[in-house]
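Exercise 7b. Backbone tokens:
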């Protein structure tokens, strides 16, 4: 039997799950209480996403050995994957009860509480992880997210300095400007009066737009700012921050000098901000180029209808939960006296052809060369409706009415009180009531949009 089990295990390792599964079942037919076969078969069930079978197999193990660590852990994983968080939490706590030094159990438990919005318990269990691994940057990052989602920025921003994108942003600039970066100091809040500071992008477009609100505060503390955004943002920021040197995509080292540097998402921490003064310029800090506003109005917006810009997809490198099926918007198209405009660009823009089968939507996104163009078009709208993406941040920063549609498990920046948006006065938030359910969100949109247009 031992040789048979080893044969199955080798097939298992090669990814030949069906062949391995058959042998495991043959073994169990002869030895129903073979814990190794039960355990390995349950792993195949987990890989196949057959979670009910995995739970059943592991319960059989627990009948033989109630403290079996792998069985308890795998049951918790299975329950988490079917969104039965109550049972998942229960089994992770059993693991901790029997095996109090198993760090991964504390980490997984903290992650579940974070997803559920129970930040107090999330922080408690992330702290337990740090007791075992005090230098673990990943845990420090996630505890930062928990604090910030709970609007506790004084504590959160310090932990947020452990984020991976901060490290990669610094390394990128060290590679691009090795001589300059080696001579300059990383700014951590010290006096920089009459000094030149270089701040640069990290993470996505939306993050940079959102954190650019802190550039005027930085400007009051230093002699000069050199700012390097992603290239598609360059023109928009040049138009809005005329006293800041907004860098081209690349400028030779010999043409620039700076005394300090800092990635842009570190600005609120270095500026000493917290939950009481983080949310500056909520009523807008970006404006559109007047000539572009006029050009877009003449070409696309010369009508008396209620004008609504929509977007359904951002960068799917981060997560798919934020992607909305374009067909969800069809319900809104039925509302009289409206004209909808697609602001979708690049990935996801193929959805426009699907919409055009049902509605004469205007494809404005295909005219954009950069975010300055986007802003010019937005200024002509009455409302923006979009997923959690950079368009929401442009609209919010322009103080343009915007309805942001969030998945059930949403990003930290929207906080726990979704009745308001702390970052932008003009933004209203709509969240899924349960995972994957956009229908209920669009039912609410339909009702509220009808009221808005009637009162307009």
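Sequence design result:
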């Amino acid at each position: 039997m031992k040789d048979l089990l080893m044969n199955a295990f080798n097939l298992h390792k090669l990814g030949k799950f069906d062949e391995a599964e058959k042998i495991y079942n043959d073994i169990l037919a002869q030895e129903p209480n073979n814990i190794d076969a039960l355990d390995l078969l349950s792993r195949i069930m987990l890989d196949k996403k057959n979670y009910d079978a995995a739970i059943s197999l592991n319960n059989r193990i627990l009948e033989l050995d109630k403290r079996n660590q792998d069985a308890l852990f795998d049951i918790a994983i299975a329950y988490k994957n079917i969104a039965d968080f109550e049972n998942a939490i229960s089994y992770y706590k059993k693991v901790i009860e029997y095996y109090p030094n198993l760090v991964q159990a504390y980490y997984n438990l903290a992650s579940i509480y974070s997803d559920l919005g129970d930040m107090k318990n999330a922080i408690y269990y992330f702290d337990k992880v740090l007791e075992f691994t005090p230098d673990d940057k990943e845990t420090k990052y996630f505890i930062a997210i928990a604090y910030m989602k709970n609007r506790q920025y004084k504590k959160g921003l310090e932990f947020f300095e452990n984020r991976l994108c901060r490290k990669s942003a610094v390394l990128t600039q060290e590679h691009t400007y090795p001589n300059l970066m080696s001579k300059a100091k990383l700014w951590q809040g010290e006096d920089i009066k009459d000094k030149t500071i270089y701040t640069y992008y990290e993470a996505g477009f939306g993050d940079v737009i959102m954190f650019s609100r802190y550039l005027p505060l930085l400007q009051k503390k230093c002699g000069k700012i050199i700012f390097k955004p992603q290239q598609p943002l360059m023109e928009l920021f040049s138009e809005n921050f005329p006293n800041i040197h907004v860098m081209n995509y690349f400028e030779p080292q010999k043409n620039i000098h700076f005394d300090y540097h800092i990635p842009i998402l570190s600005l609120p921490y270095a500026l000493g901000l917290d939950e009481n003064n983080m949310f500056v310029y909520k009523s807008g800090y970006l404006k559109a180029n007047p000539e572009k506003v006029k050009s877009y109005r003449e070409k696309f917006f010369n009508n008396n209808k209620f004008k609504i810009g929509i977007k359904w997809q951002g960068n799917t490198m981060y997560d798919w939960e934020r992607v909305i099926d374009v067909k969800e918007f069809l319900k809104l198209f039925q509302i009289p006296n409206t004209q909808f405009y697609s602001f979708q660009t690049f990935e996801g823009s193929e959805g426009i052809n699907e919409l055009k089968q049902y509605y004469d939507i205007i494809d404005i996104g295909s005219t954009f060369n950069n975010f300055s163009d986007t802003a010019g078009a937005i200024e002509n709208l009455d409302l923006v409706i979009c997923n959690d993406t950079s368009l929401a941040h442009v609209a919010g920063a322009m103080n343009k009415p915007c309805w942001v549609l969030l998945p059930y498990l949403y990003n930290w920046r929207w906080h726990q009180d979704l009745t308001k948006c702390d970052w932008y006065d003009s933004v209203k938030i709509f969240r899924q009531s349960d995972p994957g359910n956009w229908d209920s969100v669009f039912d609410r949109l339909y009702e509220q949009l009808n009221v808005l247009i009637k009162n307009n």
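Instructor comment: Residues 164-270 form a domain with the Rossmann fold fold (CATH 3.40.50). The radius of gyration is 26 Å.
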